[in-house]
């Protein structure tokens, strides 16, 4: 599964979804990931997020825990995604240390394949990120 961090996202996201995202209130110190999963297959696929998903600072032993997930189910449940359609979801994490400039997003699933892993993410000033999962 290829994953891409979108530095400057194009407006490919539905205007209704963008409006909903803009109206969300984000508390100071949180890291927000808005994710787009596109099922490019002609059959249903399934997604979920494990509660054991963290952000790891490259320059310290700090890890930020995921504190909330919206529009995606937690493992062991599965969320079906229709053929040739997209699913949008948001993940909220505890804040990263001020000194953090690069971090990894790692979903720890034990032995299960297909985990969401984004490596070497350059931190931005807003701590809001957009990821496209292919």
Count of the separate structural domains = 1
Which band does the percent of strand residues land in? 35-45%
Residue windows where pLDDT falls under 50 for at least 5 positions: none
Helix content: under 10%
Give the helices and strands as they follow along the chain: EHEEEEEEEEE
What's the alpha carbon Rg, rounded to whole Å? 15 Å
Output the structural class: mainly beta
How much is the average pLDDT? 87
Cα shape: globular
Largest sheet: 8 strands, mixed
The counted number of beta strands is: 10
Termini separation comes to 6 Å
The number of distinct helices, counting runs of at least 4 residues, comes to: 1
Strand order of the largest sheet: 1-10-2-7-5-4-8-9
Explain how this protein is built.
With 134 residues, this protein is mostly beta strands. It has one domain (3-7, 29-133). Helix content is 7%, strand content 43%. The strands form 2 sheets. It has an 8-stranded mixed sheet with strand order 1-10-2-7-5-4-8-9, with no helix packed on it. Strands 3-6 form a two-stranded antiparallel sheet. The longest helix has 9 residues, at 15-23. The chain starts with a strand and ends with a strand. 16% of the residues are buried.
List the defining traits of the structure above.
134 residues; mainly beta; two-stranded antiparallel sheet
């Amino acid at each position: 599964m290829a994953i891409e961090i979108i530095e400057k996202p194009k407006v490919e996201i539905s205007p209704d979804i963008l409006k909903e995202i803009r109206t969300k209130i984000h508390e100071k110190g949180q890291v927000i990931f808005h994710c787009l999963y596109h099922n490019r297959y002609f059959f249903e696929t399934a997604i979920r997020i494990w509660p054991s998903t963290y952000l790891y600072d490259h320059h310290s032993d700090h890890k930020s825990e995921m504190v909330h997930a919206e529009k995606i189910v937690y493992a062991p449940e599965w969320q079906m995604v229709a053929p040739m359609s997209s699913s949008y979801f948001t993940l909220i994490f505890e804040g990263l240390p001020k000194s953090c400039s690069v971090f990894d997003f790692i979903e720890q699933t034990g032995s299960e394949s297909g985990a969401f892993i984004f490596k070497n993410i350059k931190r931005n000033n807003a701590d809001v990120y957009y990821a496209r999962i292919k």
